[in-house]
Amino acid sequence: MVIELIVNILLLGFSFYCFWYVGATMPASAVNELGAEQWPQGILILMIIAIIYNIFKFFKKNKKEDIVSAFHAFPADVAGFFKSKLFIGMVLVVIMALCYEPVGFMVTCFVFLMLYGFLLGQRNVGLLVVTSLLITIILYVGFSVFLGVMLPRGQVSFLRNFALFVESLVPTF
Hints:
Layout: H1 2-25, H2 38-61, H3 64-72, H4 74-82, H5 85-103, H6 105-119, H7 125-146, H8 157-169
Helix pairs in contact: 1-2, 5-6, 6-7
């Protein structure tokens, strides 16, 4: 319970910092257009509102005595958090982010989706393989072909060659 409050407060502070950082580092756009700095700031404003609402809801839902007793049980909650599926999922996302450039989008996305599906409780390996492959292809086609985003092919030679082979199969528009 207390972890939720602490994470919300940390996210709120980080969101304010990101809002300031985007405004301080991005060049200002013209008055009559939405520039590169305004889109992230708009999303951050929505996120800040949602976090403030979540903090307000936390205090409205919980009694003062429950919050105080939860702070006393906080060390045990932290140990439980590091054993939770949420934390394992967060570690998977960090590992995916680190493997994204060297391994490439296709393999990283496929393996990540397989592991995350297994983490969420899917034990049918055949279904995991098919859905992970299908989602990877849909994401690749959506970003690479339709949006024109250059996805990493990987730095390992056989993975890079595989990515180039798959790219040759997909028609470009």
